[in-house]
Structures are given as structure tokens and as C-alpha cells.
Design brief:
heterodimer; A: 277 residues; alpha/beta; four-stranded antiparallel β-sheet; 10 helices; 24% strand; globular; B: 242 residues; Rossmann fold; 2 domains; five-stranded parallel β-sheet; 8 helices
Chain lengths: 277, 242
């Protein structure tokens, strides 16, 4: 069996000052993620899971379920309020939230990759597509100009961005093409762990399909572990071996993806599956 | 005795539908064994829970009761009803295959790659995997002009043969077959029978649901007759929950 790459325990994120009643007053039973006593938002609470090398884990749920919060805290975009996460690299392990800022930045630049729904979060629109990839390579200590340019070129070719548009600003690209540049950028350092946050949402169906195919091919070729956040059951069906279902900041159900889709246990998951097209 | 690879004791499956607050029985009190190189056939009317058993073994369904004791290639026995998800995924990759009634595969992939896929996940090179896939498709009389096309547009019988080829290619230790010949003509069915017989000789243990009694007669070493789960039991359970 392949090795464990990530272990997340009781991850919690509360926006606001929080109060002693926050946790008991929110969640699926309370039917809200906003604490009625202090107005804080319990974006995620008690999220625990593990992830193995080369595995794709799906997180599904509607807006406000906390699914994006999970990957944002793991990618250090956001600091959690409580909980821990351990990343097992090839020869070392890191307790993510006890690292200092420089150490966190280093993991983020070299060992993790992120693809956002909104390309503006993942790409620098002041430089070219190739420049975006070069930025990431420079941050991970590749400094030779020729080497960087060659790597950027091969990554863009791999993600099917036309080579001759490498020096263009991604502002001018279509949505699907921007996602491809984001994926190329995320992959630049060959990270063992990739986060994908609603990467196909809002794209044309045919473009969605091509992006999903690309993600699967990459997972096959590089054995990258991925966490795929989506509200689309079709995406987890296609990509993920296991799936977490979230609602109002809590994980309400977890299982093999085919089991979640064919034999959902929780009332909410049953409704979700029954309402899928 | 040591050639038993799966022993199911008291398997039961019910679904609880939250929206209707109802318990739907699917299978009850199922006992069976599968031996290496032998085929156990499930027979019984629609609703007797035949597919439910296969899905329980594959863990597409979470069993409601019973033990599903599987002995793996290393000789360790584990209960599939309780095994961790990573364990199940590993078994699906290496040891347990499932030919479902309908083909579920990645869209946009040519038939040849769909069939070759289980070999790739076991580390066979793409070239060698494709070659084996081609050999199998030829034996199942899938016309060569279809090999490079995604199966989405194929006829029922063509899809079924792709599904079968994909299930057989990696020679799993335990193979679950859900009506693998339902939409095949007589000649193709004969090819499938020959392939299943070869798998048996290779030591593959199988549980199968067949459409035709004649196939059960020709291929099964053991027959398990199922009847739909008794309603009286269910009524009690409903009261219990309510």
C-alpha cells in the first residue's frame, strides 16, 4: 500500500471573535454556520482525514459548507483556529501549523500546488504565462534562465497551452486556458500534493471535460496526491477514490466515492445525490 | 479448505431512506463461499438481492450485517465489511475485480485504453497493456474499427464486451460478475464461456449472476439460491426505528 502523505486532525476555522457557544450552536443540526450568540462564522470544525500518495480525495458540499476553507488552511492562505495537519514528505515530516512563516512559504512554493476557481488568485496578471511559471521556479531555487524557460515551455506544452502564446499575458486567455496555465504553474516544482478548488466551475462543459482529463493524466503520470473541492458530484465520480461530504462546516459523511453516490447514509447526502442531474 | 478465498456469513443489506423514513430491504441472511478456481452462481428472482451481495463485497454498499471474510494473496483474512477505505481501494486495484451490469468508464477514452487501464494501475507499460487489451478484444469479437473510439456510442452488447474485457484483463483473484452475457448473441456468449473457463483454470475465484439457467449449469461449481428478504422482518425493523 502506498504511504500516507497528509494527516489532518480536528481542523477548525472560526471567522470572528468566537464565543463558548459557537460550536454547539452551529453545524448541520443547527442548520447554520453562523453563531447566533456572537455572530462568528464557524467555517470548519473538527475536520479530520488522511491522504495517501497518488490518491485523489474529493470534498463535496454546497456554498458555505467549509470545503474551500479546508484547502485554504492547508495551503496556508488562511490560519486555522485550532487543529493540526502533518505533511509527510519523502524524508521528513512537518507539523504544518507549528512551522514559522518562512518554512510555511517554502513548503507552499516547493511541495504544494494550488489551483483556484478564480485564476486571479493563482496567476500574476502583470507577467506572461511563461513568467508565471518562472516566478514559481525562482521561488524554489531554480535560477538558470535557460533551464527555467525550457521547463516553463514544456509545462505549458504538457497542459496544452500553445507554445507560441507563452510570452503573452494570461489576461488575454480564455477561462479554460487560464486554468491550464494555473495547473502548469502549480505543477512547476512537481509537488507531491496538489489542491484543486472548484477548478472547473463556470467553464463550458467541453472545456471542463478537457481540464478533468488533464488532471487525471497528471495524476497517472506523476502520482500526485490531490484534494479536489467541488460542488459537482460528476467531478468526484470521475476523479476521486474517496469523498468527504461537508455541510455547515462539518464533515457529515465520508466513504468510497461509489459508496457515497450509490449508498449514501446521511439524510443530506441522500438529498444531494437524489437531486443530481 | 484452504482454497476458500471468500466466506460470506449472514450478509444483510437494508437501505434507510431518510426522506420517506422507510427501510428498504435488499438482501438478508446470505451465506456463501467462493473457492479459488471455482465459480459460485447466485440465482433467484428479481429483488432477491443478487446484485446487492456483489455490491456489498465490493463495498459499493455498506453491509448492514454479516461478515465478508476475504483471504488475500498473502494469506491474511480480513472482513470486507469493516476494512478501511484505503485497504478496499488497494484490493480493488490488485485483487478484486467487478464486471458490473453496465459499463461505467472514463468518458472520452478510446475502448482499447478503457480495457488496458487495470493493467496500467498494476504497473504494466502502456504498450504491453494495449497489446493484451487488443488480444482480448479480438477474442471477444469486438470489431477493430471500434478500438480507437470511446465506448459511449457503442451498442449494449459492444459495451458489455468492453466491460468484460476490462474485468478479465488483469486476472483478479476474486471476480464479481453481474450478468456478463445479458445482451450478447449466442456466438459471443460462447467466447465468454471459454474465457471464464480459462480464468477458472488459472485459479480465479468468481461469483456470478447469469441471465440464463444454461450458463449456471455449464459454469457453476456451487449454486446459491436466494429469495427476496422477508417483509415480516422488515416490518418489525420499521416499527423498531419509528
Amino acid at each position: 500500500m502506498s504511504r500516507k502523505i497528509l494527516e489532518v486532525n480536528n481542523l477548525t476555522k472560526i471567522h470572528g471573535r468566537g464565543c463558548p457557544l459557537c460550536l454547539e450552536s452551529t453545524g448541520p443540526e443547527a442548520d447554520t454556520n453562523i453563531c447566533p450568540h456572537c455572530g462568528s462564522v464557524v467555517a470548519a470544525h473538527g475536520v479530520s482525514f488522511d491522504l495517501y500518495q497518488g490518491e485523489i480525495l474529493g470534498i463535496i458540499g454546497e456554498s458555505g459548507s467549509g470545503k474551500s476553507t479546508v484547502v485554504k488552511t492547508l495551503y496556508f492562505d488562511d490560519a486555522p483556529s485550532a487543529g493540526e495537519a502533518v505533511f509527510f514528505d519523502e524524508d521528513a515530516q512537518y507539523d504544518l501549523y507549528s512551522l514559522n512563516a518562512a518554512q510555511q512559504r517554502s513548503l507552499r512554493n516547493k511541495r504544494f500546488g494550488m489551483v483556484y476557481q478564480n485564476p486571479h488568485l493563482g496567476l500574476n496578471f502583470n507577467v506572461s504565462a511563461g513568467g508565471n511559471i518562472a516566478e514559481r521556479l525562482l521561488m524554489s531555487d531554480v535560477a538558470h534562465y535557460g533551464a527555467i524557460r525550457e521547463r516553463a515551455r514544456s509545462l505549458l506544452v504538457r497542459t496544452e497551452v500553445l507554445e507560441n502564446r507563452m510570452d503573452e499575458n494570461p489576461k488575454k486567455f480564455s477561462g479554460g486556458m487560464q486554468q491550464r496555465v494555473q495547473i502548469a504553474k502549480a505543477l512547476a516544482t512537481r509537488p507531491p500534493l496538489l489542491f484543486l478548488d472548484e477548478v472547473t466551475t463556470g467553464l463550458d462543459l467541453s472545456v471542463q471535460a478537457a481540464i478533468l482529463d488533464l488532471i487525471l493524466e497528471i495524476q497517472h503520470e506523476l502520482d500526485t496526491a490531490m484534494i479536489v473541492v467541488t460542488h459537482d458530484l460528476g467531478v468526484v465520480r470521475l476523479l476521486a477514490g474517496r469523498t468527504l461530504v461537508m455541510k455547515y462546516g462539518r464533515v457529515i459523511e465520508t466513504g468510497l466515492t461509489d459508496q457515497i453516490l450509490e449508498d449514501p447514509q446521511h439524510a443530506y447526502t441522500q438529498r444531494l445525490v437524489a437531486s443530481a442531474l | 479448505m484452504d482454497d476458500i478465498i471468500l466466506c460470506v456469513e449472514g450478509y444483510a443489506k437494508q437501505f434507510y431512506l431518510h426522506s420517506r423514513q422507510r427501510l428498504i430491504p435488499s438482501a438478508a441472511q446470505v451465506n456463501l463461499t467462493v473457492r479459488a478456481g471455482q465459480l459460485t452462481a447466485l440465482i433467484g428472482p428479481t429483488g432477491a438481492g443478487k446484485s446487492s451481495i456483489l455490491k456489498g463485497i465490493y463495498r459499493t454498499y455498506l453491509p448492514s450485517a454479516g461478515r465478508l471474510l476475504y483471504t488475500n494473496a498473502q494469506g491474511h483474512t480480513l472482513d470486507l465489511a469493516l476494512a478501511g477505505e484505503h485497504h478496499i481501494l488497494e484490493l480493488r486495484r490488485r485483487e478484486i475485480g467487478f464486471v458490473t451490469q453496465f459499463l461505467h468508464c472514463l468518458p472520452r477514452q478510446p475502448a482499447l485504453d478503457v480495457v488496458a487501464e487495470p493493467l496500467l494501475t498494476r504497473g504494466v507499460t502502456r504498450e504491453a497493456a494495449r497489446q493484451q487489451a487488443a488480444g482480448l478484444l479480438e477474442r471477444l469479437a469486438v470489431p477493430q474499427r471500434l478500438w480507437g473510439v470511446p465506448p459511449a456510442t457503442f451498442s449494449g452488447g459492444e459495451k458489455q464486451r468492453i466491460n468484460l474485457a476490462r474485468g478479465l484483463i488483469a486476472r483478479p483473484r476474486l471476480l464479481l460478475l453481474d450478468e456478463p452475457t445479458a445482451s450478447l448473441d449466442a456466438a459471443t456468449t460462447e467466447h465468454v464461456i471459454t474465457l471464464i473457463q480459462e480464468m477458472k483454470q488459472d485459479g480465479v475465484g468468481m461469483i456470478a449472476i447469469f441471465h440464463h439457467p444454461a450458463l449456471v449449469e455449464r459454469l457453476a461449481d456451487t449454486v446459491v439460491a436466494l429469495s427476496p428478504p422477508a417483509m415480516t422482518v422488515t416490518d418489525e425493523l420499521i416499527e423498531h426505528i419509528a
